[in-house]
Amino acid sequence: MKKIFVAVTLGCSLLAAALPPKEHHFEVQQRNGVPLIYKDGKAMHSRMFFANSSNMLIFFKNGKPELISSQIKHAKSQGIDMVSLAAWMIWPGSAEEKTQKKQLDIVMEHAIQANPDILIIPRLLFRPPASWYKKYPDAKTLFTDGSYGTLPNYEHPQFRPDLRKAIEATISHLEEKYGKHIAGYHLAGGMWSEWFYEVDPNRDPWPCWDKHTARSFRKWLKERYKTDEALQKAWKNPAVTLDSAAQPALAVMRDPNRGIHAPAEGLQPIDFGRFLSERTAAHLSEIAAETRQFVGKGRLLLAFYGYTFAWHDFKHGPATSGHYAQEAVLNSPDIDILCSPFGYHDRRLGGAVPAQAAAETIMKRGKIYLSEEDLPTHLTDATNDFPALRNNQLWKPRSAGETRKLLRRNLGIVYAKNYAIWWMDLHGTGWYNDPELWKEMEFFKKIEAKSLANPVPYEPEIGMIGDNNSMLHLFGAGSYSRLVTEGMIHMGSRIGHIGAPFGQYLQDDLLAGLFPKVKLAVFCNSFVLNKSQREAMRRYAGNHGCIWVYAPGFIDGDTGEFSVEKITEVTGFKVKPLKGKTFGMVAEPASAEFMKPYVLPVKYGMREDFDKQYKDNFYFSPVPEKNDIIIARYTSGEPAVVLRPNGKTPQLFSGSPVLPIALMRKMADLSGVHSYVSCGNVVNANENFIAVTSDRDGYITITPRKAGRYRDIVSGKIIGNGKSFNVPVKKGDTLILEEVK
């Protein structure tokens, strides 16, 4: 075995040595605990532009290549040389190979002509040509209804070997012809290049129903269970064997009645979701290792991955995403930057725009988190022939001024949190082809220089906590409607309006002490916990404010059973399970005075008629103890939301994943969190500057951590002096404040 490994390694080393010497050397290093991009040993800014050059080729009858050139020039005007381009790969030996090289050259030369100093990150699209599919007709995603998708099945035995050849052929071509312009490579697999399994949001079929996935799944099961008896016990199926095990049926994954499922009910669907995530993480990390081995050091490797706080399949639940086994990717020494778009659920003027990933965990692990700015601008054309544009009209600003407000807010986020960013012309139709928009970059250059010279880690006092393992226990329509959309996706938007900065973390990293500044933790989905995790969380709660959402610890990770007692063990709240009731919620009248300072309307829970659709969902009523405060009740009268003051470590249990912003702000205040602005507004801040976004017209009161004179870097005017100050604003305005020494 060792001889084979040496031979393979030697072969790849020879290939790597055949590449020309690199004129520029790119890498990610940490300074002051902040990962930064380095070019030739010097830290550089991480603002980029993504040009969807594929539309020049695929949609040429509609595409206008000059729009790509124009936007690259606009980027250059603001010192942005780093550009990502969609790159259709070269598949050696395919009928399309010559055409692929020609297309790749057209894209590269077009970009270089627009900016002779350009530094390109080709987005390598892992999509075989038509001739490859003709040779391997069963290599596409197969759905439960017998139809095929359009994306390759990574479990097909020929895909990975041929993909590796394509990666090496494409990189060789690019390095040999354009090496001085190459900064790195984006490994773009799966649906939308984001490493999702293929789904059709308008249809019911479940993906990965082919024999190749089944074979790989059985291999995974054999490694996990070893014997037929162990598998039969886990799946609650005396007839299944390691050689006959198959993917779960569509009806199982489409369960319309309940979202949360325990292993003791049968592990087949949970196992399959775990398999999909582990295989995705393995594919990505292995492809990154192979690519690094081939290309060597000096090139950045990027990938979309780790969408803990979002997912793409609204019919079957999170399990089809493949994004819930992040350790292999986070531990990969070969991946430098992990990406995802800004969240899609609070992009409006005045919105908070949370990340879709556990971004602070990614940064703390030494990788850069990149926010993809695929924001529709005032130039987004609803009449364009590209169908996907219709969806983007939901967020489209009405003018260049509104677009600039949104871009300024989002730049404030990434600079406060040390993220990278690229503005993305999503469909290659000129969304950013307006010089006025690029002026927004100018305001951040002073902050940028300070951050590169002396970066400050982002250490907020509020943490939004996600657990990947628990997501694998959520499937069916019930998980979409209640536990993920409200408890994870919309939760980030609500926390973002508390008036204090917040971060997004993985549960295990928080409990490992990687984020010591967090004073208030919101445990969004800690549904599956073993004994050691429960004990760690109780210790954590003894020193921090905590918001416990819905049912922490309800699934015992050791026994696989539902256990109401374990909820008490984790949270300290005794809870009663409720069944056969109606589950709308109403505020407790006595709590109105308690919430009065926060002005915003206080709404608890789901709509009663909406919640009743899921007849088998579980509900829990926290039992108040002495000095506890009942905040809200179910319409049937039982307590639904209870606060335990506990001095500086307040604890809140909510039987619903929907918590009002004002209540979470109250918890932040009780936990000793410093709030910069009034409840409802949005703030992102570190020691270098404060970015405040208003959610309404009027005045906004700003209270910095340190009293002093503060200037708005956009206007250059002093707008505040002292411990706190009032500033007139319009909805959606973002003030970028720096202290004047």
List segments where confidence is low: pLDDT < 50 over at least 5 consecutive residues.
1-17, 385-391
Kindly report how far apart the N and C termini lie: 65 Å
CATH architecture of the largest domain: Alpha-Beta Barrel
Q: Quote the average pLDDT.
A: 90
Q: Roughly what fraction of the amino acids lie in strands? A: 15-25%
Name the CATH superfamily classification of the largest domain: Glycosidases
Which CATH top level class of the largest domain fits? Alpha Beta
What coarse outline follows from CA principal-axis ratios?
A: globular
What is the SS-derived class? alpha/beta
Major sheet description: 8 strands, parallel, barrel
Count of DSSP helices? 24
Give the spatial strand order of the biggest sheet. 4-5-6-9-10-11-12-13
Please report the total strand number as a whole number: 32
* Helicity level: 25-40%
Q: How many domain regions?
A: 3
